[in-house]
Design brief:
The chain is globular, with a radius of gyration of 30 Å. The longest helix has 28 residues. Strands 3-2-1-8-9 form a 5-stranded mixed sheet. It has 23 helices and 22 strands. 44% of the residues lie in helices and 13% in strands. 39% of the residues are buried. With 694 residues, it is α+β, with helices and mostly antiparallel strands. Helix 4 links the parallel strand 8 and strand 9. It binds a DNA duplex (9 and 13 nucleotides) through helix 11, helix 13, strand 13, helix 18 and helix 22.
DNA sequence: CCTGACTCA
DNA sequence: CATTTGAGTCAGG
């Protein structure tokens, strides 16, 4: 029901007798740390009541002379308002002895006065509500971090409550990777397949009232109905999904996620500081280079086509290459000609270098610089419901795929020697099957691969990680789990010898494999490169790759790949047993549990995926577990967790805590319930994430 | 194997 | 005509 100044005290009194609440906020949009704000708050209680507190709905409406808008004609007729004028929601017009209240809610020609005033509650009641939530024991929501962010912006301090996200539980109980997990779909899946589609109703309302970015104009009555339906659905889902989670034996996973939700909530709200100066400067340089490259592309293509070619269009690339009598050797999944990096490397034509260069520049500019131009701090969204394995995913922006390597700005001047050429081709071929062609030498300069991660503020190099800096008085520290997935993989093997080996502080698994397979040790000049190849192959095995793909990655024949796999299995005692036992479980009963009790369902013909799910998922859950411990430790400190990239944590360490915090964080990260010998490397990143100070 | 962002069609 | 959807490419683990 809709709360007003008249009944708010009574309702707050009722709420004070509760300790468990379902929360759902309504806002003007999704950017709560930027332009958007809370328009209303919905609160549900265990007796299934739902209350909507309107906070900042628009209270001024202009009456337009619009034939399509029946409500306004009606308002005009029944209330005596004038077209073109602005009215407050609390305005009352008396006509023939009847009071009419200005409301947007009068939809059809029912000429009746509106008795309830559609008005926001006074701010003081909102803060009283926040106070009640601060003293609660459990807060329940659907995608609850979003709602909590909106409330945190208004004084909520959820420091002790259980924060239960029904979306997280829905993910845990949904076996289909592509399933729609929005509230309505989830409700239909778990509660009632024929549930009323309030979302559609909402959409129709928005369209009818021409509401797009002006969500504050939504009528509070209407919003209340929508919000209370959300609350009702969420409440029912909470009961059903909790039961489902326990029935499936995933209570431990749930406890982990409840903690993780709080950790992530604060990671997101701290945000990451952006170097505005570097952003603006680099953005300008990129703009200049983008048009330069566009011109150069035109120089090449104009002999065949007077129009400029957009090389971001797969279609147009094909058309122009055909005019040069060049055809792609490979097709995409949908049967179109493929013009990806691997294909381009096999073509000897001046265009390919420019295409690669243009793609790189546009991606950098449009993904990592343009969106941050106006931002001082960015608040990403980490999702503990984003993956089927249990890893986090991250969006707006995705901080988990910020490029590691530097990009050369002036590729024309760059000299690429033969050694580097080989590396570029090999690096590229790691990601796709080999084409067999040789690359055109000159165009390789555009590949911009440097192998360097360290940024030295050189004018001709661009680093995206250079954008990320710390607040004044804080320093960025990076904590990196060394070869974590491998260590988790090994923990599944009955192999005490390698386990002991891993406890040695200088143990490096990829070097170990490199020596084993290629016979190259640290003294070999190309050791670093071949270690990189070994790394890719190990991951391939963990991913459950077949012999054909493995051969492609190794650049060897399928026969040799088989030999390599056999050698790997024989040297890695217990590895074959583990993989076969996973296959057997999936084939026998259809699911496996990871180390935190997360359950993975798989069809028998995809049993090989189970190996990856267990390793990736146990690793993901283990990192979240350790993150939660670090978060708890930092609660009493000034330093704070600001980012997670699967096996790396970024912490802003306060200048007065540099002595104590890093060693304790390492200790907390390496500790675990499974006796896995984890190893964490730490680096101070100053002045930015791109700079690693040893 | 697990992701997300941007662009084009 | 605006909005949604799938594909392609490429960044990370």
């Amino acid at each position: 029901m809709l709360v007003s100044n008249e009944n708010v005290e009574e309702i707050l009194g009722k709420l004070r007798r509760n300790k468990i609440f379902v929360v759902d906020i309504e806002t003007t949009g999704l950017h709560l740390y930027n332009k958007d704000y809370v328009t209303g708050v919905g609160i549900g209680t265990s007796d299934r009541s739902a209350y909507y507190f309107p906070i900042s709905h628009a209270t001024h409406w202009k009456i337009f002379d619009d034939k399509d808008s029946t409500e306004l004609i009606c308002a005009n007729l029944c209330g005596g308002w004038e077209f073109g004028k602005s009215y407050d929601v609390s305005d009352v017009v008396v006509k023939e002895g009847i009071s009419y209240v200005c409301t947007k809610n009068v939809i059809n020609s029912e000429v009746e006065p509106c008795k309830d005033m559609v008005q926001n509650i006074d701010k003081i009641y909102f803060y009283k509500l926040i106070d009640i939530l601060n003293n609660s024991n459990i807060l329940i929501g659907f995608n609850i971090k979003f709602d909590l962010h909106g409330l945190i912006r208004n004084g909520l301090k959820p420091d002790h409550q259980r924060l239960v996200d029904c979306l997280v539980m829905a993910r845990m109980c949904t076996h289909n990777r592509f399933a729609d997990l929005d509230l309505l779909s989830t409700y239909k899946n778990f509660i009632d397949a024929n549930a009323h589609d309030h979302k559609l109703e909402y959409k129709v309302y928005l369209k009818k009232h021409k509401i797009k970015d002006n969500r504050e104009d939504i009528d509070a009555y209407f919003q209340s109905g929508y919000c209370c339906t959300d609350i009702q659905y969420t409440t029912e889902l909470y009961t059903a999904l909790t039961r489902e989670v326990y029935k499936a034996g995933m209570s431990r996973t749930l406890e982990l996620e409840v903690e993780t939700t709080r950790t992530l909530l604060f990671v997101e709200s701290f945000g990451n500081k952006i170097d505005k100066h570097y952003c603006a400067k680099t953005h300008a340089e990129l703009n200049r280079k983008v048009s330069e490259t566009e011109d150069k592309i035109f120089e090449i293509t104009k002999e065949k086509d007077p129009e400029r070619v957009n090389v971001l269009s797969n279609l147009q690339i094909g058309v122009i290459f055909h005019k040069f009598d060049i055809h792609s050797p490979t097709k995409t999944a949908a049967g179109k000609e493929c013009w990806d990096e691997k294909v381009l490397l096999g073509i000897d034509h001046p265009l390919v270098g420019k295409i690669k260069e243009y793609r790189t520049l546009r991606k950098l500019r449009d993904t990592y610089f343009t969106p941050f131009l106006e931002e001082e701090y960015i608040h990403p969204s980490f999702k503990n419901w984003g993956t089927i394995t249990g890893r986090l995913s991250c969006s707006e922006p995705n901080l988990q795929n910020i490029p590691r390597y530097l990009t050369a700005l002036d590729t024309d001047k760059k000299v690429i020697d033969e050694e580097k050429q080989k590396k570029i081709i090999a690096m590229a071929s790691l990601h796709k099957t080999a084409s067999g062609n040789t690359a055109g030498g000159a165009s390789l300069a555009s590949w911009g691969y440097t192998g360097d991660e360290d940024f030295k503020d050189a004018d001709d190099m661009i680093s995206v990680r250079r954008l990320f800096i710390s607040r004044p008085d804080f320093f960025l520290y990076s904590f990196d789990f060394s070869q974590m997935e491998i260590r988790v993989f090994i923990s599944y093997l009955k192999n005490p010898r390698i386990f002991e080996e891993m406890r040695k502080s200088d143990f490096d698994f990829h070097s170990f494999v490199c020596k084993l397979v290629f016979g190259y040790d640290e003294t070999h000049p190309e050791f670093k490169f071949w270690r990189q190849i070994s790394k890719a192959i190990t991951f391939g095995l963990i991913y459950g790759m077949g012999d054909d793909l493995l051969a492609g990655q190794m650049g060897k024949s399928i026969e040799e790949a088989k030999t390599f796999r056999a050698l790997y299995f024989s040297k890695m005692e217990g590895s074959l047993d583990f993989i076969e036992s996973v296959h057997k479980k999936v084939e026998d009963r259809g699911f496996v549990f990871n180390k935190y009790g997360r359950r993975y369902f798989l069809p028998a013909n995809r049993s090989y995926v189970g190996v990856n799910y267990l390793i990736q998922g146990s690793t993901g859950d283990l990192v979240k577990d350790r993150m939660n411990h670090v978060y708890r430790y930092l609660e009493t400190k000034r330093s704070r967790l600001i980012n997670q990239i699967h096996d790396e944590l970024l912490i802003e360490v306060h200048k007065d805590e540099e002595k104590d915090v890093p060693p304790e964080v390492i200790r907390l990260l390496e500790e675990n319930d499974f006796g896995i010998p984890l190893k964490v490397d730490v680096a101070k990143c100053y002045p930015s994430w791109a700079h690693k100070v040893k």
